[in-house]
Amino acid sequence: MNVAVVGVGLIGGSVALAARERAGAHVTGFDPAGIDAPGVVDAVAGSVGEAVADADIVVVAAPVSALPSAVEAALASSSAVVTDVGSTKRTLVETVDHPRFVGGHPLAGAETAGAEHARADLFAGATWYLTPTPRTEGVLYDRLYRFLADLGARPQALDPDTHDTLMAAVSHLPHVLANVLVAQAARALDAEGERLPATGPSFRDATRVAGANPALWEQIYRANRSALGAQIDDLVRRLGEVRGLLDDGDLGAWQAQAARQRGALLEVGLAGRPVREVRVSVPNKPGVVARIALALGRAGINITDMSLAPKADNRTGIIALWVGSADADRAIELVCELGYPAA
Amino acid sequence: MNVAVVGVGLIGGSVALAARERAGAHVTGFDPAGIDAPGVVDAVAGSVGEAVADADIVVVAAPVSALPSAVEAALASSSAVVTDVGSTKRTLVETVDHPRFVGGHPLAGAETAGAEHARADLFAGATWYLTPTPRTEGVLYDRLYRFLADLGARPQALDPDTHDTLMAAVSHLPHVLANVLVAQAARALDAEGERLPATGPSFRDATRVAGANPALWEQIYRANRSALGAQIDDLVRRLGEVRGLLDDGDLGAWQAQAARQRGALLEVGLAGRPVREVRVSVPNKPGVVARIALALGRAGINITDMSLAPKADNRTGIIALWVGSADADRAIELVCELGYPAA
Fold it and tell me: Which residues in chain A show pLDDT less than 70?
């Protein structure tokens, strides 16, 4: 199988490595800025057209703003199924509207850049959304689906609108609120000449992603402005309801409902049984996830879910693992023994 | 020195223990529900009046709704300086308005209950806000200030309005938003028949406190409804600005500003030099903070700040430490060696 990767950064490079190692594919890569990570691809092409000419599958991992033209070029020069890895889907899918194009979005590695961080296991266990339309050719969708499963991902079909609404609700809106909260607290503290008190972690947790990667997030917000705007409007409406509750509502019942909802979302929603989140601090390099997964596997501990979040320095990251509540303490012990701090 | 503690739960019990161990005080306690933690106080009284009769200092650690009457009773039956530990200040200070009453709020232990978890080091390094008014008697304020410093806390004077605004901005508003975010995500997912995707940790972080301790937070929201309402209004206004930015604003500049603001708030704001947050998972019992502080101290690592956050199960907790950026990796190593997972 021939795979072409257009845009060889963290995601494109990891697709290339995983395609070669896990799917036995021959990978041709093209990157307008050149590919400075030796050994990531089998062959380097000089243009999109050259890269995709013989491809069965084309993965376009270009920046959001360059996606439409790169996808169109890939479709024009090949007979392959073409997909992308952008974090919003509706606008692109409407713009391209082609039977050989299937929008895609892997939930992994969004915060890091650079093919030098690429690794074959980046997508292990990660949800990879696909947004087929009624025009999508079934045999090509099937080819893409099986390829992504071979990479270790869990492909999941979703219509583009739903995808963008979900991402707005669970990712883009928390990022917006983190920014707004720091601006507001900075103003409140500044007005009073006060420093941030060493209060509990709620503010730190809620603002951890404030200001994350401006170049990337500018594009994500913009590309998803319709769904994100709707989520902001919904939030404003809900805040109006909270204003009413503050005057004479049942705040205790409201608080208790939130506890139930979060529990349902994060526990049963993910696994069908009570799970606990374990966070591990790791160096951002190949093999770490595998070491951890092997150690837990040997101890008979099942990893229900896992998410990777590189830190701002790009050299380290956090792995969040979800394991059965009864296994969590043992899992922390095992991971700590490997030398990775966990809690 | 005679200290009376009215309401002997986690905070009151910890004040009692610290007063005896660190300030050499004789402590009389009264709790309407009885005191079931033997050894926390020197003497158990049968009423507020009996507890405070000979007191130099009275600490009222009753629930928010019971504060005004308990404080009034303590003032009526003693000549002591009387303080409270409630998490909002304006309403109580206006209601009581007495030269011997000084509102107080220690930033520690808010999430736990029960004298059985009390510990003498609960306030070590914790900010303890005090809200004197122009009517406050200076000699009594000084007596209270020195007592709190003896407990290990860092007392800091603030006017009641400023206190409530700060708490609304950095604590109560993040709690409100956590609740609203889970409700909104639950709705979005439910409408689409989807489960929460295993995306990055932004949603989990932003909603970690959703639904925390309904009985307690109902009272906190209600007591601070004026300042919290103003912060919600300000947030809604800011969200309107974000709506405008989504259409044609400079989202990159906005994102970059948020990064600078968070950095200023959490790093330089706390310490005057770059610090890093280290999180340690610990059992919720005496001596843990001391062990960690000693280990870091022996290694010459200065703890710039520290905050304790018990987990929902009340048996374990998170200690967030702030240390110089250059010392952070070494600090994590040392704490991990003590057997406490850290990252």
Answer: 109-113, 192-201, 267-275, 284-287, 290, 303-316
Amino acid B90: pLDDT: 93
Give which of B129, B167, B203 to mutate to test A binding, by max A Cβ within 10 Å: B203
Question: In chain A, count of helices (H) and strands (E)?
Answer: 14, 11
pLDDT tier at B268 (50, 70, 90 boundaries)?
very low
Residue A312 has a pLDDT of 42
Q: CA dihedral in degrees (A32, A35, A41, A45; nearest 10)?
A: 40
Task: Please give the DSSP secondary-structure letter assigned to residue A342.
Answer: B
Residue B269 confidence (pLDDT) above 60: no
Report d(CA B22, CA B15) in Å as an integer: 10
- Tell me, rounded to whole angstroms, the distance of Cα A181 from its chain centroid: 23
Q: Is the pLDDT of residue B77 over 50?
A: yes
The residue among A282 and B22 whose pLDDT is bigger is B22
Q: For chains A and B, what is the number of CB pairs under 8 angstroms?
A: 348
pLDDT at position A109 is 62
> Beta A43-44 vs A26-30: how paired, if at all?
parallel
Residue type, B267: E
> DSSP secondary structure string, A35-82?
--STTSSSEE-SSHHHHHTT-SEEEE---GGGHHHHHHHHHHT-SSEE
By Cβ distance, the residue of A107, A238, A343 closest to B343 is A343
The reply to whether residue B332 touches residue A281, judged by beta carbons under 8 angstroms, is yes
- Convert the pLDDT of each residue in B272-305 to its tens digit: 456 677 888 877 666 677 677 778 877 877 766 6
Using CB atoms, pick whichever of A189, A261, A306 lies closest to residue B186. A261
User: Residue B320 pLDDT > 80, yes or no?
Assistant: no
* CB-based contact B184:A169 (threshold 8 Å): yes
Distance CA B152, CA B127 (A): 10
pLDDT: which is higher, A157 or B192: A157
Q: Indicate yes or no: CB of B258 within 8 angstroms of CB of A210.
A: yes
Rounded CA separation B301/A23 (Å): 49
Chain B's closest residue to A340, CA to CA, is B343
CA dihedral A77, A83, A87, A90 (to 10 degrees): 90
Residue B200's pLDDT band (boundaries 50, 70, 90)?
A: low
Separation between Cα atoms, residue A285 and residue A282, nearest integer Å: 8
- Residues of chain A with Cβ-Cβ distance to B195 below 8 Å are 269-270
| Chain B interface test: which of A176, A268, A281, A305 (most B C-beta within 10 Å) | A176
Using CB atoms, pick whichever of B162, B170, B239 lies closest to residue A199.
B170
- Closest in B167, B184, B242 to A180, CB measured: B242
For residue A165, what is the nearest residue in chain B, using CA coordinates? B188
Distance from CA of B42 to the nearest CA of A (A): 31
Distance from CA of B195 to the nearest CA of A (A): 6
The pLDDT tens digits for A251-266 are: 999 999 998 888 788 7
Please tell me which residue of chain A has the smallest CA distance to B243: A229
Token pair in block for residue B121: 């080091």
Q: Is B27 helix (H, G, I), strand (E, B) or coil?
A: strand
Is there a contact between A179 and B258 if contact means CB atoms under 8 Å apart? yes
Q: β-strands B81-84, B101-106: how paired? A: parallel
